[in-house]
Design goal:
Blueprint lengths: L1 H14 L8 E7 L3 H14 L3 E7 L6 H11 L3 E5 L1 H13 L9 E4 L4 H4 L6 E4 L5 H11 L6 E7 L3 H12 L4 E7 L6 H15 L4 E3 L9 H13 L5 E3 L3 H4 L6 E5 L1 H17 L9 E2 L4 E6 H7 L12 E3 L2
Parallel strand pairs: 1-2, 1-3, 3-4, 4-5, 5-11, 6-7, 6-8, 8-9, 9-10, 12-13
Antiparallel strand pairs: 10-12
Helix pairs in contact: 2-11, 8-9
Amino acid sequence: MARTMIFWWALCLSYWPAQSAERFSLLILGPDSAGFQEVVNALPLELGSEFTITHRIVNERTSFERYMQYIEQIKPQVMVLMDNVSINYYRRYQHIHSQPEKQIPAVAAMALFMDQAIDGLNQVVGIRYEVPAVISLVNLRDLMEQPFTRVGVVYRAQTKPFFEQQKLTCSREQIELIGVEVPSQSDKMNKQLKNALSQLIKQDDVDALWILNDSALLTEHALTYVWLPRIRRFKGPVVVGVRPLVEKVPLGNFAVVPDHQGMGKQIANLIFEMVEGGFDFDGPKVFNPVSVETILNYRQARKQFSINSEKLGQVDLILSN
């Protein structure tokens, strides 16, 4: 660790000579809700006192002009972009400030479909929020008494590359992802969803469902009038990728989600690697979360499938109320 810090400081001295006597400036742009704050709180612990960390709230109500002001006022040397709003605004920022000296290295996190979100951005690396299907489903399989092989997925046309990649990796574990595609946008999305779920459950006879973290498919109206009525009649595991959908909304009975503190550590490690590597972005630009947690809604799950009680100790959080 000491050798790493010495090397890091040497690089900083050569890369930012005017800043050598000052702390490194990091700007975090994103919401302040509970999940995001868990990630933000982990950063100072990992980055240490060498960084001046500033968090500015950016959400759907934040104007692009205010976003620009945050960057101009703080003048960060590196940024953390939290969620799709901050990433989309940074795309506009890079379009306006195309000069190399205006390009601020950044780590993006807590956004949907990260590969697409940061595609084409300069000096930006990202961490996916979606836990790979194979990790979620293998964790589920270890918990169940009866085997399963066929898992249904509804996905929008624009996320087909993501689905195909997940399908490929699952096949290596003898798990078949069976997908039904719906349009990326539609005035009749609820009807499209109903038909897709009916096909998976009735015609394709899937053993389980894996629900993508896609806000366009999980609107309040869709949850109330499409998903929940059909999920209640489905006898099998329903895997989700965000905690509220297994805890507050009775949609999923099993979830594998990124560990937020672990994601904070991963962001910090990427920042160190970016600095030590002289901001060489020839390697991978998007990474899977390295730390996840499993959540079982036991009250819901035991009605839907048989659970191996001896394996419950492997679950990080069991909801029984």
